[in-house]
């Protein structure tokens, strides 16, 4: 719900007060998070984890030829979030010097960047094959959740841009929940057979291109660690679809 406080100051306030327990999931452009990081350089060191829906891994775009929508709407913001402060950081981590709040206020400590989990566009497009028939069945229930999602997706479902139902924000949210909850979301009698939502992932350093004539906004996979300011991240590449469908059921207000 809307609050009078600006999102940027709220992010900083929550990060400071959470003492390392705050987890952030972003489902749109990274403008507010980037501004918060500019104002609070140690922001990503204060989080428990950061989960991002955005970017791409093979140069396939859905907003331009080579860029995913959320990153391309504000490439500078995505670049700020997925870049290490070169002046203050050592290789391989994101250390930040700050004054502690204990008795020795002159003490300087080093923190490392929180884990970053990214759900890229190509995974949303190709790792799942949920049919439009399955999507219709999911939304055919009289719940507030289903009514909201059906209304929001009505135009896309009508025009059918793809040959199957593509769900980006839902997948990123489901992966976040699965990382945090594991088998606890299942009934007790099913927990022994739990298989994670993530079937495959790639760990590598990433950043965002700003200068390319055709590639501005594209996420760059720095597999060889050649870019000084790139940051480590885990990219979702393959999905346990039957389990994901259960998360979709939950999103529409059905039983898991």
TrEMBL record:
<dbReference type="GO" id="GO:0016799">
    <property type="term" value="F:hydrolase activity, hydrolyzing N-glycosyl compounds"/>
</dbReference>
<dbReference type="InterPro" id="IPR036452">
    <property type="entry name" value="Ribo_hydro-like"/>
</dbReference>
<feature type="domain" description="Inosine/uridine-preferring nucleoside hydrolase">
    <location>
        <begin position="3"/>
        <end position="243"/>
    </location>
</feature>
<dbReference type="InterPro" id="IPR001910">
    <property type="entry name" value="Inosine/uridine_hydrolase_dom"/>
</dbReference>
<comment type="similarity">
    <text>Belongs to the IUNH family.</text>
</comment>
<protein>
    <submittedName>
        <fullName>Uridine nucleosidase 2</fullName>
    </submittedName>
</protein>
<dbReference type="Pfam" id="PF01156">
    <property type="entry name" value="IU_nuc_hydro"/>
</dbReference>
<dbReference type="InterPro" id="IPR052775">
    <property type="entry name" value="IUN_hydrolase"/>
</dbReference>
């Amino acid at each position: 719900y809307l609050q009078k406080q600006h999102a940027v100051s709220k992010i900083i306030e929550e990060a400071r007060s959470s003492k390392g327990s705050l987890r952030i999931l972003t489902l749109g452009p990274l403008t507010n998070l980037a501004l918060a990081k500019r104002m609070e350089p140690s922001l990503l060191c204060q989080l428990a984890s950061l989960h991002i829906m955005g970017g791409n891994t093979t140069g396939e775009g859905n907003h331009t030829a080579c860029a995913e929508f959320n990153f391309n709407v504000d490439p500078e913001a995505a670049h700020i979030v997925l870049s290490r402060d070169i002046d203050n950081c050592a290789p391989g981590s994101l250390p930040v010097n700050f004054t502690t709040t204990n008795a020795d206020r002159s003490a300087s400590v080093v923190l490392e960047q929180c884990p970053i989990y990214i759900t890229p566009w190509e995974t949303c497009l190709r790792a799942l094959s949920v049919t439009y028939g399955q999507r219709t069945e999911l939304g055919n229930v009289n719940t507030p959740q289903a009514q909201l999602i059906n209304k929001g997706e009505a135009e896309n479902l009508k025009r059918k841009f793809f040959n199957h139902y593509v769900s980006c924000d839902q997948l990123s949210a489901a992966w976040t929940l699965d990382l945090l909850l594991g088998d606890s979301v299942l009934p007790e009698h099913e927990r022994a057979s739990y298989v994670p939502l993530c079937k495959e992932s790639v760990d590598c350093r990433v950043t965002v291109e700003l200068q390319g004539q055709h590639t501005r906004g594209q996420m760059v996979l720095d597999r060889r660690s050649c870019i000084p300011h790139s940051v480590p991240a885990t990219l979702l590449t393959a999905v346990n679809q039957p389990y994901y469908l259960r998360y979709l059921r939950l999103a529409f207000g059905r039983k898991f």
